[in-house]
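FAQ

Q: What does a record look like?
A: Structure on top, sequence underneath. For example:
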């Protein structure tokens, strides 16, 4: 198929990158605020209350650091997704099914672009595993329902 960049995929890529970068910045801000809170609390607390507060801060910090790492990995994976036109279901393909449009990229869910909803899912999605390497017009069965792939691009 053509090596040309597909315009909708290019726009979706930019929008998804923006969403992930925003999430990363938000988590970094929360971590920074948490650090400030920890330093303030150190100056004003003593005893059990202090230890309980520190443990809560540590748990929150761990959760935020895991979220930050996950978002950075997703952004890196997203940047590697091909945005050229395709003719079969594979990474980077946009697949139109009766349930909607799916871009096989990273698992970040629904992204609205120009009034249309797109689901961004990974290669590991159960549905994608079933339709992997199929083409437009091919039939498949998912969760007891027979469907057809409407388009792939």
């Amino acid at each position: 198929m053509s090596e040309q960049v597909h315009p909708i995929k290019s726009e979706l890529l930019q929008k998804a990158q923006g969403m992930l970068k925003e999430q990363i910045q938000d988590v970094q801000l929360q971590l920074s605020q948490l650090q400030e809170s920890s330093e303030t609390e150190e100056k004003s607390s003593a005893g059990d209350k202090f230890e309980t507060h520190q443990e809560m801060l540590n748990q929150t910090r761990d959760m935020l650091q895991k979220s930050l790492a996950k978002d950075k990995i997703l952004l890196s994976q997203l940047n590697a997704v091909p945005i050229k036109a395709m003719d079969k279901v594979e990474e980077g393909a946009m697949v139109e099914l009766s349930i909607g449009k799916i871009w096989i990229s990273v698992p970040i869910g629904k992204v609205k672009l120009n009034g249309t909803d797109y689901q961004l899912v990974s290669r590991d999605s159960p549905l994608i595993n079933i339709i992997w390497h199929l083409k437009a017009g091919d039939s498949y069965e998912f969760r007891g329902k027979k469907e057809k792939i409407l388009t792939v691009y």
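Q: Is there anything notable about this one?
A: The chain has two domains: 7-79, 94-152.
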